[in-house]
Amino acid sequence: MKPPAKPPAKPPVFLERASYRQRRLGDAARFLPVLGAVLWVIPLLWASDGPETPSKSGMVSYIFVIWLVLIGLAAVLSRLLPDTDQSSDDMRR
Questions:
Q1: Residue 45: helix, strand or coil by DSSP?
Q2: Is 54 helix (H, G, I), strand (E, B) or coil?
């Protein structure tokens, strides 16, 4: 009598570490504009009347700092993400 046949091997559930990291970096790059929009809307929520009203220069400085931080984050993410532009490789062939 033959032993019961083994079921076929299942593919691994988890992704490789490198591909997982690349996917998360891509997700972070896609989320960056959303984060920027949320952070730029915050000055609109600040109270416009009352004794603790923030100054206009403070609001402009906040927006400028957020803008610089977003540029820095985009630069870091662009360096970490791989260059996957296939069209430039196809044009050379």
A1: helix
A2: coil
pTM exceeding 0.70: no
| DSSP summary character for residue 5 | P
pLDDT tens readout for residues 18-52:
788 888 999 999 999 999 999 999 888 887 777 77
CA distance 74 to 90: 27
The answer to whether 43 and 64 are in contact (CB under 8 A) is no
Q: What angle do CA 77, 80, 81 make, to 5 degrees?
A: 85
- Nearest to 64, CA basis, from 48, 72, 46: 72
Say how many C-beta atoms besides its own lie within 10 A of residue 74's C-beta.
14
Nearest CA-CA partner of 54 in 42, 67, 71, 69: 42
One-letter amino acid identity for 47? A
Q: Report CA-CA distances (Å) from 15 to 18, 66, 87.
A: 8, 34, 27
